[in-house]
Amino acid sequence: MAAGSMAEAAVLGVLAPGGMLTAAQIGEQAQITGCSARRAIGQLESRGLVVAVPHASLWSITPRGRAAWATKFRRYAR
Known about the structure:
This protein has 4 helices and 2 strands. By secondary structure, the chain is mainly α. It has a two-stranded antiparallel sheet with strand order 1-2. α1 (3-15) packs across α2 and α1 (3-15) crosses α3 (34-46). The longest helix has 13 residues, at 3-15. The chain is globular, with a radius of gyration of 11 Å. The protein starts with a helix and ends in a 5-residue tail after the last helix.
């Protein structure tokens, strides 16, 4: 699995339980660098799997992201 996909899986795994987190919190909980977290968040957002809360710098998983986590990425969870 490519490094980007692993970071994306880690981000979805952190967001899957629900709630809203900053990119720094996501990176910390996913145990990836801040740069990797922001890159993964951007990729996931472009595919509609995560969404930002306007003006709050908080991120949450979308229903589509939850489905992707359950079917595609979950096997790569740590």
